[in-house]
Amino acid sequence: MTPDSRLSTPDSRTSRLIVAPNWLGDSVMSLPMLRAVRRAHPQDRLAVLARRGPADIYRADGSADEVLVRSSLAADLLRLRRKRFDEIWLLPNSFRAALLAFLSGAPRRIGYETDRRAGLLSHALPRPPATRHQLRDYDLLLKAHGIAPDFDPPRLRVPEAAVRRANEALRLAGLSEGAPLVLLCPGSASAETKRWPAARYAELADSLARQGLSCAVVVGPAEVRLAAKVTAAARSALPALGADLDSVELAALLARARVVVSNDSGPMHLAAAVGTPVVAFFGPTDPGRTAPSGSPVRVLDRYVFCSPCYLERCPYRHECMEEITVRDALRAVEELLG
Known about the structure:
This protein is α/β, with parallel strands linked by helices. The chain has helices at residues 24-29, 31-40, 52-61, 73-83, 95-104, 139-144, 160-172, 198-210, 224-233, 247-255, 266-273, 287-290, 319-322, 326-337, and strands at residues 15-19, 45-50, 66-69, 87-90, 108-112, 123-125, 181-185, 214-218, 240-241, 259-263, 278-282, 297-301.
């Protein structure tokens, strides 16, 4: 049996696809939803369609039988038609996701009636108000189909191969395996407004180095210049790593830290999912919606008159992040170190 025919083999099992969120952090927060579906229907076939980075996370999680990497709309449509899914659950609220499900021919297309897409869905529900944590956004979809939500936090199992890759990255960066390690994550994929200033990350690293702690900057492939900006501003040795790691290897790296200091970003959620304590900076976004879950957390925020704005560029002076001091961050790290 070929991989392409596996989900379309005629039998009594339902063939179910979950279209994953676009961003890494959102995908981590969707893991309890996948667990709930798998627990409710252990004998059915379950697949996930996700972008390349999040796809690695879903493979490591293991709830799905198959993880498909998202491509162009046309290529994805050909695959979905070939696999002939009975159900498609849409976690993104976009029109594109609903159009893909509709054109695939799946008889049951489940999601929220956002972005003028209700006519493309067979089972459309009003989107719940954004008053609870994002982890609970999928509860209404689950309950409407007789599935009990999973209230445990996201958890990610890190494969041994990813652990070895992370250890090698630490070795090449000159970081001792036994030294207490604090990892700094100064990036954010979707908006620069979510970033605590690079110079303050450097100053925090210097303060931690004076206390005998090893520090490193962790970035993604598109954040190499940001890493260079932080390391250049630091007076202590501050290696940068992570740009050549996939998302699961990054999770393995974050699991090696005593504390992770991060903006509201994918690495913040990955760190919590592997149980590492997190200091999280919030300003233009709402920690009530997207704070990390599953590990000890210290949220640092300075809400001002326009918070949370969710803007990608600040029209003012970025006070919500500028007012969080290095002393605030240092105190939070010390609290988590115990």
